[in-house]
């Protein structure tokens, strides 16, 4: 929820999962073209920029001071880039890679089946990593950027 108590469509609804499109791409990395994986990052960054634009516009309407709008835009852009693209992309990438390596021990399972199993592991982990990553990113932002710009407001 936002500070005003209204629902934030970008963080409190199913729309939040659009930011995780690149995790779906990372999960399927072993089975699809790199172009599809790259496109999933385009979707995730589009979501990130949409949230940044929305919150910047709302700040412009409510306050109008360019410095405050820039600080808000920076906050949202950094938060979304970390929480929606960089951290979860890395987590899913590594989870799928290590799963694939671990599954290679099972030589009776075909390589295609092992790849699909790694995809399943990656996809099924997405709902479980969203809240911890969001919370950790919020803590990080509160400890760094938001603390640094507090005096500028």
TrEMBL record:
Superkingdom assignment: Eukaryota
What InterPro entries does this protein map onto?
A: Mitochondrial_18_kDa_protein
The answer, when asked if Lipoprotein is one of the entry's keywords, is: no
Pfam annotation, one family? MTP18
A GO CC annotation recorded here is: mitochondrion
Give the residue spans that cross the bilayer: 76-96
Q: In Gene Ontology terms, what is a biological process of this protein?
A: mitochondrial fission
Which keywords belong to this entry?
Membrane, Transmembrane, Transmembrane helix
Keyword Translocase (UniProt) = no
Tell me the protein family, please. Answer: Belongs to the MTFP1 family.
Protein name as catalogued: Mitochondrial fission process protein 1
Question: Which source organism?
Answer: Spodoptera littoralis (Egyptian cotton leafworm)
Which lineage is the organism of this entry classified under, starting from the top rank?
Eukaryota, Metazoa, Ecdysozoa, Arthropoda, Hexapoda
